[in-house]
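Q: Fold this one first, please.
A: Sequence and structure below.
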Amino acid sequence: SDEIVFEMADLIISKLPEKLDIDNALPEMFEPDEKGRINSLSTVLSQEIVRVNKLLSAILSSLINIKKAIKGLAVMSDQLEAIFNCMVLNIVPETWADAAYPSLKPLGSWVKDLELRLQFISRWMDYGQPKSYWLSGFFFPQGF
């Protein structure tokens, strides 16, 4: 199971960006209007980016540490062992779920769903406000 988890960790790492950089978003989305107000949807976007980056950091750091532990370069802590066991059982690790949006999906589907959420936010950053919004794709849809 060490090899399987190592390969899973590599695969997940390869699919996820290190972080989403709000500085790469279209500048006009954050320009104030004539009254000095920034569009409220831009505020929603910036809040989502903060939440996504927190989740990406939790996922990537734990996967890097799991790979080190499997290679014998780091100690397999209780937290890393719990993540390892969740990956073997195709369950979203609790530390990731705590930093994430509510979901009951198994790990494989959850990672695919995360990729789609990242695509949605990235397109919003790159091309401006979408014509329609994926409400369930938000961490905090009430903020919308």
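Q: Good. Now the second chain.
A: Here it is, same layout.
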Amino acid sequence: AYFAAMAAVQAGAHAVLCFSGDVAVIFGTALSGWAFGSCYPLLVLSIAEIWGASRVASNYMIFDGAPGAFGSLIFAKFLAGAVIRANSGPDGECRGEHCFRIAHIVMVVVELVGFVLGCILTLRTRIVYRTLGLIPS
């Protein structure tokens, strides 16, 4: 449930970043850093609990390496590049808060999908945690 909650916090962070002003940037960045920074250390533990400690190396790269690589390519390169090209002026530069607003809106939608998938994962892994005796039957 924690991963799902942090996906919702991350969506909130990007929603805050859609607004202009220093407060929005500071608050949105702080929320985003909290959500991102609190999930990835727990990823290793969750992988070990679900698939076993002997398979952490191979499974960790699937859950951290691949999404990092594809996410960077899709969102940081293609999405950001398309948004800049669509909003840049005749000089090729994009100025103002409108430049990346659509990118933040897309990220909110993606993170809400992550929230739904996190809820599904929580429901599907209950049997693992029940077997480990971590939740009551």
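Q: Anything worth noting on the second one?
A: DSSP finds five helices and no strands in the chain.
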